[in-house]
Model the fold of this input.
Amino acid sequence: MKNELRFLNFICFVAAILFIALAVLNAIFSPQLLTTDNLFVTMVCMVMALMFAVNPLLYLKSEGRLPIPFAKRLPRREAAQLAGSTPPMLDSKGRAVPPDVRAIVAQMGQAQPKDV
Done:
C-alpha cells in the first residue's frame, strides 16, 4: 500500500512538472505571449500543474517531511503529551462540555466521606 501511494504521488509530481514545462515552452516559443489564446493555454497548464502538485505536497506535509517556513512547531515531547491527553468531555449532541459543568461532574465522581 505504501509503495502504491509513493508511486501515485510520483506520477502526480511528474505530471505537474510536465504541465509547468508545457507552460514555459508556450511562453518561449509563442511569437506573441499576451494574446488571449496563449494566456488561456498558459493558465490552463498552470492550474493543471497545481491540481497535480497538491496531493504529493499534502502527503509530504502529513508525513512531516515538508518543512513549512514560519510555522510554529511543538517540540516532540510536548506533541507526545498533547497526543496522550484525555479527550474532551462531550454532551449527548457531541458538543464540548463547558468547564463549570466539567468541574461539577469531577466533584460528583469523588467519594464523599460518610458522617459517623
Remarks:
- The mean pLDDT is 84.
- The chain is about 65% helix and 0% strand.
- The two ends are 66 Å apart (CA to CA).
- Residues 2-29 form the longest helix (28 residues).
